[in-house]
Design brief:
The complex is a heterodimer of chains A (about 425) and B (about 170). Chain A is mainly α and about 425 residues long. The mean pLDDT of chain A is about 85. Chain A is globular. Chain B is mainly alpha-helical. In chain B, about 75% of the residues lie in helices and about 0% in strands. Chain B is built from 5 helices and no strands. Chain B is elongated, with a radius of gyration of 20 Å. Classes of the chains: A mainly alpha (about 425), B mainly alpha (about 170). The interface between A and B is large, with 61 and 58 residues.
C-alpha cells in the first residue's frame, strides 16, 4: 500500500524529499499515530555532526573551482601527455581523476573540466560528441575517489566508518580511470587521432607540477588527518574549506570575496535540497523499520535464490536502473536502509557495499534520461545529448565491467582499509 | 491583483533576508568547525560548544536553504515521466502535487506543538550551549512556515504564467 503511494508520488514528479514525507504522513494517519513523530525524526535527522561534512566538501570543491585550480591541473597534464596520439582524451580523463580529489561531485567536474577541455579537443580535430562523451564519463570517476560526498552520505546512513570508505575508494577509482584510458587508447589508434608536436622542457614541467601539487595535496592532507586521528571526517571537510580558501585567496589569488559569498549561498541552497531528503528519509526509515520492510524484501529475494552471486547481480542491476532515473545522493539515501541488510545477509562487508553503491550509482551520471554529466557536457560540446550519450557507450561498458570486478573481488576494495586501519 | 503584488514584494524581501542569514550561517559553520580543530590541536584546549552550535546552524541552513530551493523549483525529482505529458496536463499535475506538498507542510508546522510544550514544561536545554530546546523546535516550525509561503508563491506564479495568461508557452515547472 505505502509502496504504491510512494511510487505514484515519485512518478508524478513530486520532489523526492516530499515523496518521503507525504508517504510517511499517510502511513501515520492510517496507523493513527501521532504526527509529533514527523518533526521529531526530521530534527534528529538533521542534528547530526557527521552530515555536516556534506556542505563543507561541496563548499571546498566550489572554492577550489573558482580559484582556477582546474586550469592549472589541465595545463600540467597537457604539458606532460598532450603530445601522445589521442593525448587530449587522456588529459581529460587523468585530470578528472585528480580533480576528483577536490570535489567529489560529478557535475561540477564536467562543468569545470569540460569548459576547458571540450573546446580544446574540438580545435585539435576530435568530434564534438567524442569530446563531450569523454568529459562526461570521466567525471563519473570523481565520487569514487576521496573525498566523496556520496560516501559521507552512505556512511551516515549505514553507520559505517567514513575514513574506511574513503580509503576503500582509491583502488576502484583508479581502476575506473584505467579502464577509460584503455578505451580512449583503442579509439586513438583506430581513429588516428592528431598528434601535437612539442618539446618538453624541465622548466615548464616543474612549474606545472608546482602549480598542481596544491590540488593533489588536498586528499593526502585530508586522509592523513583522518587516519592519524587529528580530525574527524567532518572536521577534515572543514579544514578542506580552510585550505581551499588559503589557496584561493593567498596563493593563486584568483578567488574574489564576492564570488566567495556567492559560493556560500549556492552551497547553502544545494545543502538544503540534499539534506532535506536525508531528514525526510530519517522519518521514512523509521516507518520502514517499523513495518520490517527491509526484512520482507530480503526474504523475498533470498526465497527466489540463495546464490549470493545472483543476488549481488540483481542488486547491481536494480541500482544501475535507479541510477539512470535518480540523483545519486537521493538514491543512496533511499536504498541504503533497504539494500544494506540484504547485502549483509549474503555476507557482503558494509564498506564493500558502500563502494559498490557509489561506483554503480555514479555510472548513471552519464546515462540518459537523468545523466547530469551528459546534460552539462552536451551544451558545452554544442551537440545533441543523444549523440554524446551514444559516444559514451564504450566507456560506459568499461565502467560497468569495473563495477562487476569490484563487486565480486572484495579484496580489491578492502585491501587498503584493512592494511591501514585496524 | 494588488494583494498579489504586495505578496510578491514581501516574498522578494523575505528571500533576501533568508539569503543573507543562510550565507552567515554557512560561514559560521566553516568558522566553528575550524576553531574546534585549532583549539584542540594547536592550543590543546578543546572547545565544547562548537560541535553543537555548528550542528544547529546546519539545521537552520537546511530548512531555509530548502525554502529558497522551493521558491526557485530546484528540488531533486524524477521528471522523466512528467516530461512526456502535454504541457497543460503537466501544469495541472504540478499544481495538484503542490497542493499535496502544502498539506504535508501544514502537518509539519503543526507537528512540533507537543515537543515544544514538553520542552517548555521540563525546561529542557541543549547540553553545551544551554539553548532552550523549545526554541529549536520553534525554529523548525518557522522553517516549515517559510517553505509553505514560498511554495504558495511559486504555485501562484505557475497558475498565472500557464493557466490564466493561456497558451501552452512557457516551461511548466
Amino acid at each position: 500500500m505505502i509502496a504504491s503511494i510512494f511510487i505514484f508520488l515519485l512518478a508524478v514528479g513530486i520532489p523526492i524529499a516530499f515523496v518521503l514525507g507525504i508517504s510517511s504522513v499517510i502511513y501515520l494517519w492510517k496507523a493513527q499515530m501521532l504526527y509529533v513523530l514527523v518533526s521529531q525524526r526530521i530534527f534528529v535527522g538533521l542534528d547530526n555532526f557527521l552530515i555536516l561534512a556534506v556542505p563543507l566538501f561541496i563548499l571546498a570543491g566550489k572554492i577550489m573551482n573558482a580559484s582556477g585550480i582546474t586550469q592549472r591541473l589541465i595545463e600540467f597534464f597537457y604539458i606532460i601527455i598532450g603530445h601522445i596520439r589521442g593525448g587530449l582524451a587522456y588529459v581529460n580523463i587523468i585530470a578528472s581523476v585528480f580533480f576528483a580529489g577536490i570535489t567529489g561531485a560529478g557535475a561540477a567536474d564536467t562543468a569545470a573540466i569540460g569548459s576547458i577541455m571540450i573546446p580544446a579537443m574540438k580545435k585539435e580535430g576530435y568530434s564534438p560528441e567524442y569530446s563531450g562523451a569523454v568529459t562526461a564519463i570521466s567525471s563519473t570517476i570523481g565520487p569514487t575517489i576521496p573525498p566523496s560526498i556520496a560516501m559521507v552520505v552512505y556512511g551516515a546512513m549505514a553507520e559505517a566508518s567514513i575514513a574506511k570508505l574513503f580509503l576503500a575508494g582509491f583502488i576502484p577509482g583508479l581502476l575506473l580511470g584505467l579502464a577509460q584510458l584503455l578505451v580512449a587508447a583503442h579509439y586513438a589508434r583506430r581513429q588516428n587521432f592528431p598528434v601535437r608536436q612539442k618539446i618538453l622542457s624541465f622548466r615548464t614541467v616543474s612549474k606545472g607540477f608546482f602549480n598542481t601539487i596544491l590540488a593533489i595535496m588536498m586528499p593526502i592532507i585530508l586522509l592523513g588527518g583522518i587516519l592519524s586521528g587529528i580530525f574527524t571526517p567532518t572536521e577534515a571537510a572543514g579544514v578542506a574549506v580552510f585550505y581551499a580558501l588559503i589557496v584561493g585567496f593567498f596563493i593563486y589569488r584568483e578567488l574574489k570575496l564576492s564570488s566567495f559569498v556567492n559560493i556560500l549561498f549556492e552551497t547553502s541552497v544545494l545543502t538544503g535540497t540534499i539534506l532535506i531528503i536525508l531528514a525526510m528519509a530519517h522519518l521514512f526509515g523509521w516507518i520502514l523499520a517499523a513495518e520490517t520492510v527491509p526484512e520482507i524484501i530480503a526474504n523475498a529475494m533470498t526465497s527466489m535464490t540463495k546464490n549470493p552471486i545472483i543476488i549481488l547481480l540483481l542488486i547491481n542491476l536494480l541500482l544501475l536502473f535507479l541510477g539512470t532515473i535518480m540523483e545519486t545522493l537521493a538514491a543512496i539515501i533511499l536504498m541504503t536502509p533497504i539494500l544494506l541488510p540484504l547485502s549483509q545477509s549474503i555476507g557482503i562487508d558494509p564498506i564493500h557495499f558502500g563502494i559498490i553503491m557509489t561506483v554503480n550509482l555514479n555510472i548513471g551520471l552519464a546515462t540518459p534520461p537523468l545523466g547530469v554529466c551528459l546534460l552539462v557536457a552536451s551544451p558545452i560540446a554544442e551537440v545533441s545529448l543523444e549523440k554524446v550519450a551514444l559516444s559514451a557507450v564504450p566507456f560506459l561498458l568499461a565502467s560497468i565491467a569495473v563495477l562487476f570486478v569490484i563487486s565480486y573481488m572484495p579484496q580489491l576494495v578492502l585491501f587498503l582499509p584493512n592494511l591501514l586501519m585496524r | 491583483m494588488l494583494i498579489l503584488n504586495i505578496l510578491e514584494r514581501f516574498s522578494g524581501f523575505l528571500e533576501n533576508v533568508v539569503k543573507v542569514s543562510i550565507i552567515l550561517s554557512m560561514a559560521g559553520i566553516v568558522l566553528f568547525v575550524n576553531l574546534a580543530v585549532f583549539f584542540r590541536y594547536v592550543l590543546s584546549d578543546p572547545l565544547t560548544w562548537t560541535t553543537e552550535l555548528s550542528s544547529y546552524l546546519l539545521v537552520y541552513t537546511v530548512l531555509f536553504g530548502a525554502s529558497i530551493a522551493l521558491r526557485h523549483n530546484q528540488f531533486v525529482k524524477v521528471e522523466a515521466l512528467l516530461n512526456l505529458l502535454p504541457n497543460r496536463l503537466k501544469t495541472w499535475i504540478i499544481i495538484l502535487s503542490q497542493v499535496l506538498i502544502a498539506i504535508f507542510l501544514v502537518v509539519c508546522i503543526g507537528s512540533p506543538s507537543m515537543l515544544i510544550k514538553k520542552a517548555v514544561l521540563t525546561k529542557t536545554v541543549s547540553p553545551a550551549l544551554g539553548i532552550p530546546m523549545a526554541n529549536l523546535y520553534r525554529l523548525l516550525r518557522i522553517g516549515f512556515i517559510c517553505m509553505l509561503f514560498f511554495l504558495c508563491m511559486s504555485s501562484v506564479k505557475l497558475i498565472r504564467d500557464n493557466l490564466i495568461s493561456g497558451g501552452d508557452q512557457g516551461e511548466a515547472g
